[in-house]
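Appendix B, example 12.
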Amino acid sequence: MGHKVIETPNLDKLASESRVFTRAYVTAPLCGPSLASIITGLHPHQHKKTNNDPSYFEEGINANTKEWPKERRQLREQVISNFTKVPRIPE
């Protein structure tokens, strides 16, 4: 994309062979909420997916069993419940 210092030859080659959108915007700076917005056509405050799920290696998560503590599981289930209440474009 013409940066003076950062060289990205593989991305530059891909861009030269593709369509490039130079003015793209996201509804949130996180992957999960942005993908939820693409699927629903809603903003994060509307579909209530406002963060990504925690990593298994976050404090309080057992990396061996890959289980979240009860409070995190409840929060995650609430986020999923909120998300399933809104219409989704693929459906």
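Helices lie at 9-16, 31-40, 44-47, 70-84. The CA atoms of residues 48 and 81 lie 10 Å apart.
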